[in-house]
Each structure stands twice: as structure tokens, then as C-alpha cells.
């Protein structure tokens, strides 16, 4: 589709028409593979008057939920759900609701959220003074809050789950190169790209680990890469196919690019410099100032050849430089995916772990993931063996305190949890000093970090003129991607199936035919569910078997039956059926209702016993399958039952579907 930008910001005005126009634009961006940032600060607060209808406004958080629901059903580039950043100015009357809007992990799941904090707010937070809340509709003061208490709430939320983050909106606009065009109000979902409404930016990262030569950076090669990268990223702007015309217009008018780095931790290791040392901060500033200077020179040269960006007149460059092709040149992006492809450390982050265990499909078979630089050094120095690797993995991936690892090696190989929050912030500030846009960096904290640790990190980030900050306390989110043994705790093992079980089978009429749901129990309760349609076969039975297996795995893994019911109940298919006791909306809905009736202890009549082996007076033997029944020739697309071939047509005996040929 040739949509080559990663980051977008869309405006959200205080009108129903504009809000839903923005939502449509966001859907188109997500569909094309981009992520979107929004400031909801212009929307009137909850409880305010809506003059057009005489009603009461629901506030910005309610509209965030609408945007979140829309994002749920649209995949980025057809591959994954879209990502969003939601931002609210700290002076908005609904700021407290916004700060706590993600405390329920089931709500607003497709957003990162950040508070746009002003310098005035930060100073008053330090002094624990009151500050004013302003209604964006009228521009008038409507209330006051204690800045210290609001800041405490932000910090507590970040300690609990990593959100909200903070963007320092005044610092961002102090470095806004096109302030005559407009003020920046929001960033992209990862926070490294502050953008004007309808702007987009394309990002690129240089793998520094490939530029180490004879215990130094190969500065000549780095210069060459920077010039080529600026030229390439500028070309991308013209080759791009933008999702909506407004984005193309603003992007071409400012021509922002974001060149950054990855592999910084690997570079420090090759140079023998510990991450978080004064020497590492000095190298960070030296590298980034070099990239910034050469990047600007390259953009000036392109401006002379191709013309400056259209909004050059009135920008910060007007009168200082003869030309400038790009309003911004540098950004530090997270590089989570591309660093894996490039085989280097991520962005400017330290290593996650020196060695950790990756579980594979066979739970008894585990693979050690070992940093290649460490493995080479360990083999060269003769201390590499499985026992040492196991000790490192058990030590949350750190070599600190491992007796077999020499002190000099321990000094060089530093992990994210070996570093204090202060040193994380100082590294971010070192790069930010020479970056046009912003710097993506996670301030990692150990699991036992305190709320005050988070508070001090936020205050230091503001003091050192970072443009924003995101913290993550290890283990504070259930969806954490990577973990080490210390943080995992006991592994969850499904309880074993006894050789003999008891259970019941319910027959339920559905739109797809008769569904038979078998529920088995052990001494601890319900633990197994099977489901089968009477004459389905094919895909329908395969799907029901998969649902049954997953339900059984959940039950054996101590997931409460009511939680399973909650997920399956009310799922709809095109063939609902009204039966005694209410509608059956689908087969999953029928399974949920069968489980619900069982756990609620509703009376289930005992089935008559059949004597298949009795003589006279016994029950009739089951009827054998007659040869006149035809073999299936496919599966019904409407109900999933087998199709049979009759009179030149494929016919479904369950729902009546037929097709000829």
C-alpha cells in the first residue's frame, strides 16, 4: 500500500462532527499501518452544557472509549490492532478522571496515556500549591486543585502500571521549529515524535554497533551513513502514499524526518564502557551531537538542491540558514522490531538481560538466550558453561554478584535493572540534548521500587529538560513480554486429568442443529468441557473441539468458570434460535449457558438409563446407519453442517442451504 509513515497526530475539536471525522481519519491511518496520537484537551468537560441539544457533555474520557472501541475492530495494515496515544492537558477539569481511566485493565486497552504537564504545574507540584482548572470551551477558570496531590496521583498510577506518562508540553513547544504554523499538543503512540495536527513523520535508526572500529566510533563512516539516511528519509516523504489529503499537505509543508540510533548498549560493550557511567553519558552526547550536526548539514545541502520545506519562512531557521529541507532531522525511536531484525540492542536502552531462558513448546525443553558479546567473551576467557548461564538466568539475567564472572566483565555487562532510575533519566537527557524531536526511553525500575522512586524520576526528567518520561516497574503489568526467573514466580501448571471422571451431557437446540455439551468434574469441581453438533463434522466440529479444549485448559489452570461464561456469553452468529428458557445466539453462547446453569446448580433431570444388551422388554438397539445416507461433500457456509450431493446440488440438511454445480 506504500504508506511509509509510522507516526501521526490528529486534531480533536469540541464538536460531534469533528470528533467523528477524526475517528474516521484514525481508522484510515490504522488500516494503512500507522499509529495515532490525540490531544483530547479541547473537548469540554463532563457535566458541561451542550447548547445544541440542551444536554450534558460526557467529557473527553468517554470519547477516548469510543476511539478505543473503533480501534479494536481495525487492524494496522491488516496485521494488528492500531495503537493510540491519548493526551490531556493538566489544566483540564477532567484531569483526575483521565489519570485513573486505565486502572481497570479492561478499559481503554488500545491507548497509551500521558498528562501534558506545564512548567507552572511542575513548579506548583514541588511546592504543593493550588493551580487552576480551565474549561476549554469558555477559557474560564472553573475550579482549583492542589498540584502536589494531582502529581501524587500521576506518580501512583505510573508506579502501579506504568501509566500515565508525562509529556512536558512547554519544553516541547520551546523547540517547536514551526511555531508560526501552530502549537504542538500531542505525540505519536510511543512518545518520541511530537507533531502538529495532521503531521506525520518517518523514522530511521542507525545501528551504532556496526560502526565500532579499533576501540572507537568510525566517525567518517557514521558521517557517510547520516548523509545517506537523511537523503533517503527525505525521499520517503515524496514516495509516500498518505491516508488522507490533510496529512499529505501538512507533512509535505514541514517535511519532518526522524533519524536516530539503535545498538547503543552493544556499542558501549564493544568499547568497554559501562552503561550508566559518566563515560557513557559523554559518549551519548558526542555521538548524538555529531549525528545532529551532520544531519542538519545534509538537510541544508538538500534544501539548496531541492528547496526548503514550504513553511521555512517564519520558522526558527529563517534568517539563520540559507536553506533547510526538513523542519526536524533527529528522533530517538524505540526500535523494538527493527533492532531484532538488525540483531542489535534496542534503541538507547541497556540490555534487558545477559542470559535468560526462553520456554519452547515442550515445557521440559528450554533454550538459553545469551548476549553474543558476552558469550564470546565468556568462551574466550574460559568461564562459559551451562551452570554459569543458569546462575545468570536465575539472577534476573544479571552477571552482578556471580562469582565465576570476572569483575571487569561484571562492570561492562549492565542490564536495565542493574541501573538506578536516576541513571536511566540521565541517559535519556544526554541524548535529548541533541535531538530535534523527542527521545523514547523506558525508565526501568525493580519490582521493589517505591512510589517515591517514580516521583524523583519524574522530577529529574523535568529538571534535565527531557520532553517526556515513561516509567515501568518490573512485573507491574500482566502483559509483560520478556521476564526473568525472579519476576515470574511459580509457573502455572494445569492440573492433571484423572483416569475416570464423572459428568453430565446437555442437549441444546441451536441454529446450527442439536449441540451436545459434556461437562466433567473432579474432586475440585468443573474441569473439562466437550461440545459436539449432532451431524456437523468438518470445520464446525473442529471449531467446537478447539473451543472445548481451550475451556478445559482454562478450567484446569484455575480460571474461574464464571470468567469463561462472561467471555462466551452473548456471542452472536447469523442463525440464533429461540428455545425454552430464552434465545440461543450461537454455539459458544449455548456452551456458556450450559456451564452457567451447571455452576448455578439449576436442577438437571436425570436421563433414563438405556439397556442396549437387554432381552425382551429392554430398550431397542440403536439403528444402524443406512446405506442411503450420502457421504458429505463439503461444509455448509451458513451453519457448518455437512453438505450432501443431491440432484446436481450440494444441500445442507440442517438449515436448507443449497448451491448447484
Task: Give an account of the 3D structure.
This protein has 4 domains: 1-197, Anaerobic Ribonucleotide-triphosphate Reductase Large Chain; 202-351 and 414-445, Anaerobic Ribonucleotide-triphosphate Reductase Large Chain (Alpha-Beta Barrel); 355-413, no CATH class; 502-599. Helices cover 35% and strands 20% of the residues. It has 20 helices and 28 strands. A 9-stranded mixed β-sheet has the order 15-14-1-2-7-8-11-19-18. It has a 4-stranded antiparallel β-sheet with strand order 25-26-27-28. Strands 20-21-22 form a 3-stranded antiparallel β-sheet. Helix 4 (119-127) packs across helix 5 (147-161), helix 5 packs across helix 16 and helix 15 (421-432) runs parallel beside helix 16 (451-463). The radius of gyration is 30 Å and the shape is globular. Residues 607-633 have low confidence and may be disordered.
Q: Which short descriptors sum up this protein?
A:
alpha+beta; Anaerobic Ribonucleotide-triphosphate Reductase Large Chain; 9-stranded mixed β-sheet; 661 residues; 4 domains
Helix segment count?
20
The main β sheet shows up as: 9 strands, mixed
Strand order of the largest sheet: 15-14-1-2-7-8-11-19-18
CATH topology of the largest domain: Anaerobic Ribonucleotide-triphosphate Reductase Large Chain
The structural domain count equals 4
Regions with pLDDT < 50 over 5+ consecutive residues?
607-633
Tell me the β content. Answer: 15-25%
Number of strand elements: 28
What overall geometry do the principal axes of the alpha carbons give?
Answer: globular
Computed CA radius of gyration, to the nearest angstrom: 30 Å
Give the rounded overall mean pLDDT: 87
Q: How much helix is in the residues? A: 25-40%
Distance between the termini: 37 Å
Amino acid at each position: 500500500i506504500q504508506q511509509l509513515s509510522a507516526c501521526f497526530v490528529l486534531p480533536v475539536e469540541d464538536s460531534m462532527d469533528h470528533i467523528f471525522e477524526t475517528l474516521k481519519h484514525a481508522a484510515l491511518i490504522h488500516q494503512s499501518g500507522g499509529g495515532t496520537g490525540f490531544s483530547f484537551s479541547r473537548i469540554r468537560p463532563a457535566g458541561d452544557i451542550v447548547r445544541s441539544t440542551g444536554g450534558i457533555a460526557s467529557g473527553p474520557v468517554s470519547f477516548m472509549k469510543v476511539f478505543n472501541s473503533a480501534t479494536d475492530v481495525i487492524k494496522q495494515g491488516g496485521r494488528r490492532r492500531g495503537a493510540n496515544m491519548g493526551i490531556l492537558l493538566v489544566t483540564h477539569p477532567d484531569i483526575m478522571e483521565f489519570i485513573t481511566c486505565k486502572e481497570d485493565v479492561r478499559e481503554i486497552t488500545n491507548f497509551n496515556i500521558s498528562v501534558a504537564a506545564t512548567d507552572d504545574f511542575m513548579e506548583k507540584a514541588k511546592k504543593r500549591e493550588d493551580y487552576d482548572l480551565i474549561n476549554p470551551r469558555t477559557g474560564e477558570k472553573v475550579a482549583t486543585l492542589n498540584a502536589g496531590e494531582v502529581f501524587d496521583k500521576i506518580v501512583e498510577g505510573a508506579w502501579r502500571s506504568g501509566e500515565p506518562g508525562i509529556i512536558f508540553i512547554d519544553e516541547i513547544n520551546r523547540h517547536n521549529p514551526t511555531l508560526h504554523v501552530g502549537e504542538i499538543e500531542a505525540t505519536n503512540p510511543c512518545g518520541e515524535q511530537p507533531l502538529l495536527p495532521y503531521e506525520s513523520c518517518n523514522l530511521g535508526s542507525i545501528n551504532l554497533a556496526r560502526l565500532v572500529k579499533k576501540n572507537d566510533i568510525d566517525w567518517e563512516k557514521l558521517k557517510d551513513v547520516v548523509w545517506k539516511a537523511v537523503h533517503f528519509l527525505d525521499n520517503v516523504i515524496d514516495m509516500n502514499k498518505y491516508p488522507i489529503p490533510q496529512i499529505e499537505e501538512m507533512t509535505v509543508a514541514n517535511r519532518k524526518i526522524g533519524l536516530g540510533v539503535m545498538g547503543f548498549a552493544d556499542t558501549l560493550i564493544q568499547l568497554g564502557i559501562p552503561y550508566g557511567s559518566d563515560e557513557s553519558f559523554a559518549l551519548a552526547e558526542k555521538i548524538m551531537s555529531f549525528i545532529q550536526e551532520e544531519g542538519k548539514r545534509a538537510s541544508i545541502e538538500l534544501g539548496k538542491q531541492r528547496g526548503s520545506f514550504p513553511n521555512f519562512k517564519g520558522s526558527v531557521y529563517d534568517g539563520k540558514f540559507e536553506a533547510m529541507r526538513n523542519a526536524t532531522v533527529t528522533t530517538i525511536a524505540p526500535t523494538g522490531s527493527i533492532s531484532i531484525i538488525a540483531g542489535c540492542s534496542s534503541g538507547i536502552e541497556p540490555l534487558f538481560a545477559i542470559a535468560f531462558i526462553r520456554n519452547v513448546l515442550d515445557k521440559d525443553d528450554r533454550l538459553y538466550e545469551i548476549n553474543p558479546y558476552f558469550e564470546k567473551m565468556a568462551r574466550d576467557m574460559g568461564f562459559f558453561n551451562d551452570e554459569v548461564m543458569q546462575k545468570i538466568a536465575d539472577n534476573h539475567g544479571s552477571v552482578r554478584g556471580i562469582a565465576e564472572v570476572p569483575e571487569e566483565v561484571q562492570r561492562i555487562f549492565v542490564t536495565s535493572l542493574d541501573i538506578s532510575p536516576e541513571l536511566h533519566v540521565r541517559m535519556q537527557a544526554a541524548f535529548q540534548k541533541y535531538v530535534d524531536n523527542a527521545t523514547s526511553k523506558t525508565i526501568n525500575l525493580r519490582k521493589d521500587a517505591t512510589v517515591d522512586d517514580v516521583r524523583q524520576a519524574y522530577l529529574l526528567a523535568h529538571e534535565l529538560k527531557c520532553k517526556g518520561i515513561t516509567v515501568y516497574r518490573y512485573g507491574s503489568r500482566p502483559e509483560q513480554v520478556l521476564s526473568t526467573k525472579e519476576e515470574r514466580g511459580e509457573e502455572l501448571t494445569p492440573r492433571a486429568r484423572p483416569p475416570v471422571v464423572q459428568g453430565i451431557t446437555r442437549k441444546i437446540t441451536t441454529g446450527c442443529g442439536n449441540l451436545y455439551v459434556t461437562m466433567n468434574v473432579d474432586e475440585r469441581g468443573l474441569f473439562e468441557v466437550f461440545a459436539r453438533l449432532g451431524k456437523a463434522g468438518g470445520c464446525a466440529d473442529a471449531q467446537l473441539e478447539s473451543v472445548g479444549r481451550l475451556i478445559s485448559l482454562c478450567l484446569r489452570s484455575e480460571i474461574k468458570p464464571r470468567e469463561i461464561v462472561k467471555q462466551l456469553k452473548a456471542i452472536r452468529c447469523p442463525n440464533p434460535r429461540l428455545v425454552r428458557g430464552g434465545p440461543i445466539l450461537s454455539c459458544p453462547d449455548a456452551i456458556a449457558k450450559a456451564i452457567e446453569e451447571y455452576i448455578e446448580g439449576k436442577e438437571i433431570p436425570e436421563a433414563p438409563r438405556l439397556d442396549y444388551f437387554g432381552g425382551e422388554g429392554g430398550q431397542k438397539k440403536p439403528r444402524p446407519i443406512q446405506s442411503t445416507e450420502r457421504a458429505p461433500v463439503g461444509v455448509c457456509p451458513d451453519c457448518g453442517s455437512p453438505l450432501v450431493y443431491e440432484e446436481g446440488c450440494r444441500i445442507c440438511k440442517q438449515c436448507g442451504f443449497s448451491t448447484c454445480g
